[in-house]
Design goal:
transmembrane helix, PAP2/HPO_sf, 211 residues, Phosphatase PAP2 family protein, mainly alpha, PAP2/HPO, 8 helices
């Protein structure tokens, strides 16, 4: 049962995502968005503004793309581990395409008076979704090479905090509604769990055939 519990988590994440999509497409003003947006609102030229502005750049597609390329090169050249390299490459590229497709389908306009220049549609947040996919795969593939459980826990918690801060920064900069962030996390989690477990299945079968 525990072995397949990830499927239940994926299902719950997808249910949450489609619920949020349904609510967004109803074009109603959502109380959740209003409350959370006020909670994390910041003024321009303040210390919180400067902090979140710096954090939000860590989730930009160009930054994640460059770091993803470095991870792929590490797996390819140094580790010579080609299956994880392929999964990492396909995972990031596929996640980006999926995010853009849903945005163009949903066509949710971004909040007014945002504090950063940005374009495109709002739902779901690419920063939240791709950030979660990226750091999930880094945690799975790269942290396997880290020795010492304490260091793994510290790095893992650090990744989680960074993903959360990236999402909060998008709300603070008023470039996304909170439901965009939550939907990005939900879809990113479902995508990552599915991808990692498909990788485990392929790897197990390849090892089984060799034996």
């Amino acid at each position: 049962m525990i072995k397949y519990s990830w499927m239940a988590v994926v299902l719950l994440c997808l249910l949450l995502f489609f619920f949020l999509m349904h609510e967004v497409q109803s074009e109603k003003t959502l109380a959740f968005d209003t409350y959370i947006a006020k909670l994390f609102a910041v003024g321009e030229n303040t210390i919180p503004f400067t902090f979140f502005k710096s954090i939000t750049y860590l989730g930009k597609s160009k930054v994640i793309g460059i770091v993803s390329l470095l991870c792929v090169l590490y797996l390819w050249i140094i580790k010579k581990n080609y299956l994880p390299m392929a999964v990492f490459s396909i995972g990031m590229a596929g996640g980006d395409v999926l995010n853009e497709w849903i945005k163009n389908h949903t066509k949710r306009v971004r909040p007014e008076n945002h504090l950063l220049e940005t374009g495109g549609y709002s739902f779901p947040s690419g920063h939240a979704m791709l950030g979660l996919i990226f750091f999930s795969m880094v945690a799975y593939f790269i942290l396997k090479e880290v020795k010492g459980n304490s260091l793994k826990w510290v790095m893992g918690i650090g990744f989680v905090c960074l993903v959360l801060l990236i999402g909060i920064s998008r709300i603070a900069m008023n470039v996304h509604f909170p439901t965009d962030i939550l939907a990005g996390y939900a879809l990113g989690a479902a995508y990552s769990l599915t991808l990692i477990n498909l990788y485990k299945c392929v790897r197990w079968r390849s090892i089984y055939k060799k034996t």
